[in-house]
Write a structure and sequence with these properties.
single chain; Four Helix Bundle (Hemerythrin (Met), subunit A)
């Protein structure tokens, strides 16, 4: 058995993501492209293993509770976040944030990205209903994903669709 308390780890990750997203909104609003890019890179490194684990372990463990349709919705949310992450990386890599971007980008983050850790953290209400063995398996998988440490944008380009196809999902954006 892994030494992780998977529920505590989920909640900790989601709180960290929330805080990093709020920092990112602040940096973009202040038009600080260098700081915003540094924050985005931190977020990319944290969320890659986490998203991978959610799709390969966390969501499938909950599918019997919330069903296939909701699972597909969550995969679509991941697709949208990966797409937005790529867009943000391209904008911030220019080294400057326009006045218009400083207005629009925080709203995109607030409306399309920030709700996801909140919604996912809510799924932990269901996690307590899973068998102990399932929690242990999820803990092992979380450790594996963290050890491999593949950042979000790289995972989105190289692994996400392959694993989904192996599990019978369409290998394209679901949402």
């Amino acid at each position: 058995m892994a030494g992780l308390d998977v529920i505590a780890e989920i909640k900790s990750d989601h709180a960290r993501v929330r805080d990093i997203l709020l920092d990112l909104i602040d940096a973009i609003s202040k038009r600080d492209a260098e700081r915003a890019l540094e924050i985005l890179i931190r977020l990319d490194k944290l969320t890659g293993p986490h998203f991978r684990w959610e799709e390969e372990s966390f969501y499938p463990a909950h599918e019997k509770i919330f069903g296939r349709q909701y699972l597909e919705y969550l995969l679509g949310v991941h697709d949208r976040i990966v797409k937005r992450g790529k867009e943000l990386a391209a904008i911030l890599s220019k080294g400057e944030i326009t006045e218009e971007e400083a207005k629009v980008l925080p709203e995109i983050i607030r409306n399309e990205v920030l709700p996801h850790p909140i919604e996912c953290d809510g799924i932990t209400l269901l996690t307590t209903k899973l068998p102990k063995e399932e929690l242990e398996k999820m803990a092992v998988e979380l450790e594996r994903c963290r050890k491999e440490g593949i950042p979000l944008l790289e995972w989105g380009e190289t692994i996400k669709d392959k694993v989904r196809a192996e599990r019978g999902f369409k290998a394209k954006t679901l949402c």
